[in-house]
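Batch manifest, entry 17 of 40.
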Amino acid sequence: MRCDSAFAARRYDNGLMRLRIFIEPQQGASYDTQLAAAKATEDLGFDGFFRSDHFLKMGDVDGLPGPTDAWVTLAGLARETSHVRLGTLMTAATFRHPGPLAVAVAQVDRMSGGRVEFGFGAGWYEDEHTAYGIPFPASARERFDRYEEQLDVITGLWATPVGETFRYAGRHYRFSEGPALPKPQQAPRPPVLIGGTGRTRTPRLAAAHADEYNVPFASVEDTAAAFDRVRAAVKAAGRSEPMRYSAAQVVCCGRDDSEVERRAAAIGRAPEELRRNGLAGSPAQIVDKLGRFTEIGAERMYLQVLDLSDLDHLELIASQVSRQLQ
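Output type: structure tokens
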């Protein structure tokens, strides 16, 4: 294995990349399975543990034992971990009313001692809404209209000073004399993450509301183009606060080709496809590709781990990939 990767010489050009673990528990993971993964993530020194917010499996898996609610799960993890960052990629705006959602996220932030990050998206997976009786706006425009109002509401509730009330009159949501409590532990609020590759509205919403912009499962070139659109939107908005840029990629790391093949087979993917469309290969090969993301401005990488029974995978990444980023 080559340890002196090309990235090792240039990794500090744009700062230190932080690695976070990202799971998809709707594919089949109990709370106990997620807890074991979260504790391993923390013990191995990763920067964060994030999960999707879905109620229905995707693809050819049985999904057993069934879905778990993202914020109920994160509340439990908040009390059973001590320092790892916790959050969602992404909570769907279609799932919850913004008032109770603001309360839930603020409460989990306090339960964690101020370690929550709020990834928030418009919602897209119609089948899970149908399966669980959740209204799903027929048009993408309406979903984004509701999503934009929810961003206004949630950040507005958190920003309202204690002792004052929150009012809001939107097309879809109205608040009158809301107490805007509880407050998150983090001040002025937990970091807000917005993701996606939309060309117009997503960059504008990110510039207005997000602390971090995330591009999921895209090539380096497409990620760079998306980053540039958000940078342009930030500039056009006259924003002074810095934006953090990140990406999410499926990870499949192995000490040799046979280990890569075994891990790829376990998640139903082909090694060569993962090399093209994710982070797959030896630790040195993965470090090199991470270097390409760093060069375009990514400061964090969310490593999607799909086989939660293989905690040795996390140990390998921590010891052989993270080590080269320090």
